[in-house]
Amino acid sequence: MLLFFIPFILFFSLSSAYIWEFDPNKLQRQLTQNKTVLLLHYIPYGETYKNYKSTFSQLDEAIQKQQNKNIIVGQIDCEEYEDYCENNQITHYPSFTILQPNDQTIFINSLETKKIQEALHTIGIEIEDIKPIHIITFTFENSTEIAKEPTLVKFFAPWCGHCNSLKPIWENISRESKLRIGEVNCDKESRLCSIYSISHYPTIIYITKDQNNNEVREVYEGERTFKDLKTFIEQKNNSKKQEL
């Protein structure tokens, strides 16, 4: 099998599109029928899987709108079909591949927006309205900028498993949110994290100023899911409108 490594990102918000559930035999039948399969390799637990499954559904919806019946979006459970995933060089989850009838496989493994369009273009999908990730990186040097306008800030450490699970959700939130979204790497910015009394990772804080120009902090205590974070942001946006 000829392998092409092309960076790619899935970038859409939540959707309810239909996703094929494959086993190795069903998958092979689609390929022998000259179908191209955009395949999610997953293990059925964890917040990262839930988030990428949602974005994968949105990709399926985009393909359906283009009425391309030769492209199928599906997924395969690598806990149940471990041998298949290992034999096809899938080493982390979730992972994405484009399987083509000519035995060419495109591995999708990057978060660069420009490469999204390039990878989709190879299978005949043209999507122009890609929403970019917009996350402000705060440091001690620019920390005075944090409270200049209402901002939701994630304090994290790169070695933290829960932080890594939150990363794709945080990126999707930044694409959808009208509220400013930021983050602080506490491994690099220990002094700034100390100022905000960060004791565990990830910690999410809504930061704004009151009428006396004093900084106000509210620690987010909800679930770290796209839906719950989006609801929290909408509540803050609505309360801000009422103040105005």
UniProtKB/TrEMBL annotation:
Database matches in Pfam families: Thioredoxin
Domain Thioredoxin: 109-238
Descriptive protein name: Thioredoxin putative
Gene3D superfamilies reported for this sequence: Glutaredoxin
SUPFAM superfamilies: Thioredoxin-like (SSF52833)
InterPro entries (alphabetical): PDI, Thioredoxin-like_sf, Thioredoxin_CS, Thioredoxin_domain
Signal peptide bounds: 1-17
GO CC, one annotated term: endoplasmic reticulum
GO biological process: protein folding
Family indicated by similarity: Belongs to the protein disulfide isomerase family.
Organism the protein comes from: Entamoeba histolytica
GO-annotated molecular function: protein disulfide isomerase activity
Secreted in keyword set: no
Keywords: Signal
